[in-house]
């Protein structure tokens, strides 16, 4: 007897990710979860340089500004609740110093362009179709930074609007990196503040627009969809796979989806390296009863030898 439905998956036949790949992850907090896995296993990756971006227009704007080398200035930031913020970035970039925020915005934007140029894979996770337009600037914002809601108008992006945005960001990146591979996903995190029905409608717009994009470029092998949303909703349809808020997948669910992603997108020859990296990471995280004991010193020496051998083959690895 089988008590679980399973999303059919098959390994990607071309363009899999290995330790020579360079991965850029942009989007909703689910991209953070997968991005942390890439960082843990020491893949070459850049994760959300402007913080979590929930909706497609924000991701498109980041890519547009990076490619066009925008320079952020005082006009692009504002002071609120004792911090300086930018409507294009998540609040984790906010800072009590205006100069520090501007330096961070411009540094991360420069880094983003360089990584987009070199990227072999770009993973984009969309979280919501709901967007907020700031009334004074008439710009859609990536984050409201707890500015009172009367300063914004709220809108549900249509499937057509999302499709136009996705087409635009793909075309933008391909002007500087024509061979890059895009992997689209939809975040399984539910935005209940929008309402239960409204969240379902929002997710459906995202899923429909991504698949319309794939259908319009059906001859291209550089655009793919990974069903993270469906795996959580259909395979792990139980609240034991969620955090206490009952909205965000817990570590067990994240690990499950990561293993599914590995089975599709990570090359077989990289899995042995991942096993070695995992052993080193666990060794480095080990907390001994006596750090001055001979046994512990010998253990640390063995870990250092393993790390050194791996770094000889892959010099970019940093432990």
Please, could you describe this protein's structure?
Residues 22-261 form the GSCFA domain. This is GSCFA domain-containing protein. Keywords: Hydrolase. By secondary structure, this protein is α/β, with parallel strands linked by helices. It folds into 2 domains: 22-266, 3-Layer(aba) Sandwich (Rossmann fold), CATH 3.40.50; 269-319. Helices cover 45% and strands 14% of the residues. It has helices at residues 29-40, 56-67, 98-118, 159-176, 196-216, 228-235, 251-265, 268-285, 294-313, and strands at 22-27, 44-47, 78-80, 83-85, 121-126, 130-134, 139-141, 152-156, 181-186, 223-225. The strands form 3 sheets. A 5-stranded parallel β-sheet has the order 2-1-5-9-10, with helices on both faces. Helix 2 (56-67) packs across helix 3 (98-118).
Poorly predicted runs are none
Assigned CATH superfamily of the largest domain: SGNH hydrolase
Structural class by secondary-structure content: alpha/beta
Largest sheet: 5 strands, parallel
Q: What Rg do the Cα atoms give?
A: 21 Å
Question: How are the elements arranged and paired?
Answer:
Blueprint lengths: L21 E6 L1 H12 L3 E4 L8 H12 L10 E3 L2 E3 L12 H21 L2 E6 L3 E5 L4 E3 L10 E5 L2 H18 L4 E6 L9 H21 L6 E3 L2 H8 L15 H15 L2 H18 L8 H20 L6
Write a brief caption for the model.
By secondary structure, the protein is of the alpha/beta class. It contains 9 helices and 10 strands.
